[in-house]
Write a structure and sequence with these properties.
Helices cover about 40% and strands about 10% of the residues. Helix 2 crosses helix 3 and helix 15 runs antiparallel to helix 16.
C-alpha cells in the first residue's frame, strides 16, 4: 500500500489558483518538498539576467523564460493539460523545447566550425598495410563501398579533421570500407583506433583485423577493461611509443593514461552507443596540437530529418547496396501456440547443418512479465533437441563464456544459440541461416531488423521467424507485417515513422547519449528543420546570443566551442 501525503492545516488557507504539478521524485524527497523547492527557485532566481531576446530570429511565443517556466510549473486550470504534457503545443512548452533544440544545434554548428580551424594529419600514402588488406579481403567491393571509400579518402588526405558518419544496412560492408581507409593512415606512419561498444565485439574485430593484416600482427593490440594490470601497462606503453599502430578497444581507450604518439584516425563502430563527449575525447588524443580524423559507423537507419540534427556536425555517407550473391532473408510470422511445431522444423533444419539463433527478451523468468526467457527456452530445447546442440548467450555471462559460446556456434559444434539481444550488434557467423525471435511484438522494428541481420550473411538461403503472441493488436500486426514485406532497413525506418511516429527510431539509444533536459528529438522532430535554420542564423549573426544559449542549455552536458 502506498501511504498518502498529508498536511495538518493550522488554519484555513485559500486554495491555490493554479494546478499542482506531479514531479518525478527521488527517494527522500516528497511532492510537497519538490514543489516548495521549485517555488523557492522561481522566487529567488534573477531571471532578468537570463532573458535572451531572440525575436529578431524567430517568434519565440512572446513569453519570457520566467513566464514560460511559471506556466509549466504552476499552470492555470483553464489550460488543457494535454497542451502542457509531452507532445503538447502550448506556447510555454514550445518556447522551452525550441530554445533547447536551437541551443543544441548551435553547439553542433560550433563544433563543426571548430573542426574547420583545427588541423589533422594528412593520410594519403599507399603501402604494406593496404597491400595486406587487398590480398586478404575475399570480395570485390560494391560500387557503393567504392564510392564511400573515395569520400573518406578525400577527407583524410586534407589537413582539416574529418567528421564522417557511414550509414549502411546490416551486412553492407561498413567495416571493410573503414579498414581500407585506415590503411591510408597506417601507411602514412600514423596510428588508428577502432572503438567497439562491447568487449565481445572488440574481440571479434581484433580477430578479423589480424586476419586482414598478417604482416603486422605485432603492431595490432586490444585494450579493454578486463586486462590484467601488467598486460595493460605494457600495451599503454607501446601505444605511447608508437610500436602499436592499430589499437582495437572499448571505452577503456578513453582513460586519461591512454596516450598516443601520432593518432591520425578514430573509427567508432555503432556510434550511437558513445556520447558526444566520448567521441570528442578520442579525437583529441591525437596530440601534437592536432585532432584525429573521425569515422563513425552505424547500421541503424535514421530518417534524414533526424540525422540532420543528430549529426549536424558530420558529413554523412550511405552504403545503399549489399554485396552480390546475398539472398533476401525470408521473414514470416508464427503464433506462439505453434512453437512446438516450430521446434520440430528446427530439429530437421539442424540435421541439414543449419545454424539457428533463438532470441528471447529476458534472461530469467519474470513474475510480472509474460515473456520468454533464455533460461526457460534453453531447458525446453535441451530436452527436445539434445544438450550437445544448444548453448546459452546473455549479458550476465563473463566475456570468456560469451567468447566460447560464439566460437562453438561459429564452428558448428553447437547448432542453436539461445540468446538475449546481446547478439544484436556485430556478432558475425556467416553460416547462421535461421533467426527465431520470441515475443517479437515487444521489440522495435529497428531492433528486429538488426537482429534479423545476424543471418543472411552468405549466399545461403536464410530465414527469420517472428514468434508472437496468439492475439496481436492491429498495430503490432501492421508492424510485423512491414518487416515481412521488406529487407531494406531505410524503408523499414520510414515505415516505422509512418506507423508509430518517430518515437522508436532511436529508442533507448538516445538515453544518456543525446543531452536533452526538456526536448526530445524523436517526439519533437517536427521542430528540427526550423530550429536548425534558426540556430545557423543566430550563430552567424550574433555570437553573444549563441554563447548565452549554449551556456543556458548545454554547458556541462556536451563539450562545445564558443561561437
Amino acid at each position: 500500500m502506498i501511504h498518502p501525503d498529508y498536511q495538518i492545516m493550522q488554519k484555513v488557507t485559500p486554495l491555490s489558483k493554479t494546478l499542482n504539478p506531479v514531479y518525478r521524485i527521488t527517494k527522500g524527497i516528497s511532492q510537497n518538498k519538490m514543489r516548495s523547492l521549485i517555488r523557492l527557485a522561481m522566487d529567488d532566481y534573477n531571471f532578468e539576467d537570463e532573458e535572451i531576446d531572440l525575436s529578431r530570429f524567430y517568434n519565440d511565443e512572446s513569453l519570457t523564460i520566467r513566464e514560460a517556466l511559471n506556466i509549466i510549473h504552476a499552470p492555470d486550470p483553464k489550460i488543457p493539460i494535454d497542451e502542457l504534457t509531452p507532445g503538447g503545443t502550448h506556447p510555454a512548452r514550445v518556447k522551452l523545447l525550441k530554445e533547447e533544440l536551437i541551443a543544441f544545434q548551435i553547439g553542433m554548428v560550433s563544433i563543426k566550425n571548430k573542426q574547420k580551424t583545427s588541423k589533422a594529419y594528412e593520410c594519403k600514402n599507399n603501402g604494406k598495410w593496404e597491400n595486406d588488406f587487398k590480398h586478404t579481403f575475399p570480395f570485390e567491393l560494391t560500387n557503393a563501398q567504392k564510392r564511400v571509400s573515395r569520400e573518406i579518402n578525400n577527407d583524410i588526405a586534407e589537413i582539416s579533421p574529418m567528421m564522417r558518419l557511414v550509414q549502411g544496412d546490416v551486412g553492407s560492408g561498413k567495416t571493410a570500407v573503414a579498414l581500407l581507409s585506415a590503411t591510408k593512415a597506417l601507411d602514412s606512419g600514423y596510428q588508428v583506433v577502432f572503438m567497439a561498444p562491447t568487449t565481445l565485439l572488440a574481440q571479434q574485430h581484433l580477430e578479423s583485423i589480424k586476419n586482414y593484416f598478417p604482416s603486422h600482427q605485432d603492431e595490432i593490440a586490444l585494450l579493454t577493461s578486463g586486462l590484467r594490470k601488467k598486460e595493460r601497462d605494457e600495451i599503454i606503453e607501446n601505444i605511447f611509443s608508437g610500436s602499436i599502430k592499430f589499437l582495437v578497444g572499448t571505452h577503456a581507450v578513453l582513460q586519461n593514461d591512454v596516450n598516443f604518439k601520432a593518432l591520425a584516425m578514430v573509427i567508432i563502430d555503432e556510434q550511437h552507443r558513445f556520447g558526444v563527449n566520448q567521441r570528442l575525447t578520442l579525437t583529441r588524443k591525437a596530440d601534437n596540437g592536432l585532432s584525429a580524423h573521425q569515422l563513425t559507423l552505424t547500421a541503424t537507419p535514421i530518417p534524414r530529418t533526424l540525422s540532420m540534427s543528430i549529426y549536424a556536425n558530420m558529413d554523412v555517407s550511405v552504403i545503399d547496396e549489399l554485396p552480390p550473391g546475398r539472398l533476401p532473408i525470408q521473414t514470416s510470422m508464427v503464433a506462439i501456440s505453434a512453437r512446438d511445431k516450430l521446434i520440430k522444423r528446427v530439429e530437421k533444419a539442424i540435421k541439414k547443418d543449419s545454424l539457428v539463433y533463438w532470441i528471447c527478451p529476458l534472461v530469467e523468468e519474470s513474475e510480472t512479465l509474460d515473456l520468454s526467457s533464455v533460461n526457460e527456452r534453453f531447458d525446453t530445447l535441451k530436452e527436445s533437441l539434445g544438450e550437445k546442440n544448444v548453448a546459452l548467450m546473455h549479458g550476465k555471462l563473463s566475456n570468456d563464456e560469451k567468447k566460447e559460446a560464439i566460437f562453438k556456434f561459429k564452428s558448428g559444434e553447437i547448432k542453436i544459440l539461445i540468446s538475449t539481444t546481446v547478439i544484436e550488434v556485430g556478432v558475425d557467423v556467416p553460416d547462421a541461416d535461421i533467426m527465431i525471435i520470441e515475443n517479437a511484438e515487444r521489440f522495435g522494428l529497428a531492433q528486429l531488423h538488426q537482429l534479423r541481420g545476424r543471418v543472411g550473411r552468405s549466399s545461403k538461403a536464410s530465414f527469420c521467424i517472428l514468434l508472437h503472441k496468439d492475439k496481436l493488436t492491429e498495430l503490432s500486426q501492421e508492424r510485423l507485417s512491414a518487416l515481412c514485406d521488406s529487407n531494406d532497413g531505410f524503408a523499414i525506418a520510414e515505415k516505422d515513422l509512418e506507423i508509430r511516429g518517430p518515437g522508436e527510431i532511436l529508442g533507448s539509444q538516445q538515453t544518456g547519449v543525446l543531452p536533452f533536459r526538456y526536448a526530445n528529438l524523436v517526439r519533437d522532430n517536427k521542430y528540427l528543420t526550423d530550429t536548425k535554420n534558426i540556430a545557423e542564423r543566430i550563430y552567424d549573426a550574433d555570437k553573444e546570443k549563441a554563447n548565452q544559449l549554449m551556456k543556458r542549455w548545454i554547458s556541462g552536458i556536451i563539450s562545445y566551442a564558443n561561437a
